[in-house]
Amino acid sequence: MKNYSIARSRRLRSTPYTSRIEKQGVTAYTSYNHMLLPAAFGSLEDSYHHLKKNVQVWDVAGERQVEVSGKDSTKLVQLMTCRDLSKSKIGRCYYCPIIDDKAGLINDPVILKLADDRWWISIADSDVILFAKGLAIGKKFDVKIFEPNVDIFAVQGPKSFKLMEKIFGKKITEMKFFGFDYFEFSGSKHLIARSGWSKQGGYEIYVENTKSGLDLYDKLFEVGKEFDVKPGCPNLIERIESALLSYGNDMDNDDNPFECGLDKYVNLDSEVNFLGKEKLKEIKKTGISKKLMGVVIDAKEINVSKSMELINEKNLKIGELRSAVYSPHFKKVIGIAMLDKPYYEVSQGFKISINYSTFEGKVCDLPFI
Amino acid sequence: MKNYSIARSRRLRSTPYTSRIEKQGVTAYTSYNHMLLPAAFGSLEDSYHHLKKNVQVWDVAGERQVEVSGKDSTKLVQLMTCRDLSKSKIGRCYYCPIIDDKAGLINDPVILKLADDRWWISIADSDVILFAKGLAIGKKFDVKIFEPNVDIFAVQGPKSFKLMEKIFGKKITEMKFFGFDYFEFSGSKHLIARSGWSKQGGYEIYVENTKSGLDLYDKLFEVGKEFDVKPGCPNLIERIESALLSYGNDMDNDDNPFECGLDKYVNLDSEVNFLGKEKLKEIKKTGISKKLMGVVIDAKEINVSKSMELINEKNLKIGELRSAVYSPHFKKVIGIAMLDKPYYEVSQGFKISINYSTFEGKVCDLPFI
């Protein structure tokens, strides 16, 4: 596939780390919340193997925060998600599907409870701030909503714990998964969460003081030499093998949480009030008509740039492929697809056309590994 | 400047025209409403000269539509814009700043009135659909809001009129600026507006029937040979010379319409109810504290990938550059900048650092040409 370059502008802006990753060998970008998100540092496969063995530092500043504070902040945040946050704790992260009144997904952020009346919604790629503002204006909520200057970078991989311990001491290794706390570095406090968009473990550093954050970024590469630290980015192979869903790729506003296998984040029996609750009850009763599943395809290469049709032996469309990549582990293409009822069963066969050739595939459960 | 490639996916998806423009020589993309928007076909300067003399066909499918219909649709659309739409007519396009309750800009779409209770908001790069949904839910408006399958391509340049006449006859040349009507091609009706994101004149075709739209796309290149038709895209040089503002580049949610020189689209004396009306009255009384102006810089090259500081002779920051390009017409860099009060005066001098060298510049009025 021919490469096309990405045009930069303020509208698709650089991050504080862009000049660093360009010296460090970034080769491709995508856009994420109107910002550059690195998509490759040379070979995807080399980066995948490295991530699973060592430690990487990722510029994920495109994961923007929507800060909601004020008297009605909890009411607004709860209104937007079908996950019950009534027992949520300060210092914890919560993966929360955000849905509209029709139960269509709008985003799938991690929400951080900073205080009883202050939240950060750490968003996937859609302008959640506009949804929050619209709701708050319409409901006359007493809240303040804005995008703070927070530029996240992540430290991911099995050796991330050893590396971070060298800088922040033992305490940082004792933090639980999806916990966060504040850690000092060169005179600044940084919010650091044990989280990140890989299944290899690690941290996300929510940098508010850019200068100190850049110093920390550099320090990680200095101290990390013994762990073979490298720059990296969310890895398509690793994230599909681990079935980390990507909003906009695997699911969008035409899908509801049940169709996407997010049942455990839907709390219909709770007392709390959220958009789409009645609609979700109705869907639960009548059942879903499509479902997100894994697929394995007997092919060596694929590039997904829009939905691709899955066809059965009668040449009927039975679903669409939304993300896929060649997996060196399975030695096949693996992907995430939305299958129509009744075809979302494990072992359902299908055909797919890739570059004008037809390949065979099978439906399977998620995650792959 | 080194080139970095753009990573494709369903989240930053292709348009129906992507495979065509890739055969036709597109070299760079940007993202626009989660879609690929072509940014260059080789030399920006060659494309600029060609656009000003001939005719080009542009894939601008990233200019998505937010369809608002139903009983309260007019109320909702009016609520979102400070432009008085009470006398708007079916068959007309309206350039409308969309603002929030603090008068901060959210988008600057062209709004098409399709019927008394049906509108298309043809958006710049932000998820206006989420703002509209939030407001409608909060206000309990009786409306239907969705993104229809509409993929615009534009025909731009002085010879666009002759070219379109060859296909659609004299009637299409009689349409007024910002008017639209339906025209038949190969069995389908296409909404065609006399509009487009250049000052060279032309049309935008709102394609709903993809197959017929692709046929029309191909037909334009077939018939257009005598006018030297070429593929193209919004041209950075042409659009800055003409001062066509770009949301996300030149202005964003921290700016209000008065600061951006959009005064004529602010109807404070009207009877209609819109967000931010009281705030705008207040701003009108107290005055603005910054203003969007043109700038001319004694330099031969520039790449803007985020805001760039403008400094005065006392080394104080007096504003920020938001878009800029080398203009072959002026033989200098020209740009659009937000200047702080009291520095937004014509002839105000400043210094700017480009690639670690300092250049001199001057503030001027918009547009340049």
Mind explaining what this structure looks like?
The structure is a homodimer of 369-residue chains. Chain A is of the alpha+beta class. Among the domains of chain A are: 18-63 and 150-240, Gyrase A, domain 2 (2-Layer Sandwich); 289-369, Aminomethyltransferase beta-barrel domains (Elongation Factor Tu (Ef-tu), domain 3). The first copy, chain A, has helices at 18-23, 44-53, 73-80, 128-139, 160-168, 210-223, 236-241, 277-286; strands spanning 5-6, 28-32, 35-40, 56-59, 65-69, 93-95, 98-99, 105-107, 110-115, 118-122, 144-146, 151-156, 180-185, 188-193, 202-207, 230-232, 290-297, 308-311, 317-327, 332-340, 349-354, 357-364. The longest helix of chain A is centred in the middle third of the chain and has 14 residues, at 210-223. Chain A is globular, with a radius of gyration of 21 Å. Chain A starts with a strand and ends in a 5-residue tail after the last strand. The mean pLDDT of chain A is 97.
Quick summary:
The structure is a homodimer of 369-residue chains. Chain A is an alpha+beta fold.
Q: What is the end-to-end distance of chain A?
A: 28 Å
Number of strands of chain A: 22
Largest interface (C-beta under 8 Å): A-B, 54 and 54 residues
CATH architecture of the domain at 18-63 and 150-240 in chain A, please? 2-Layer Sandwich
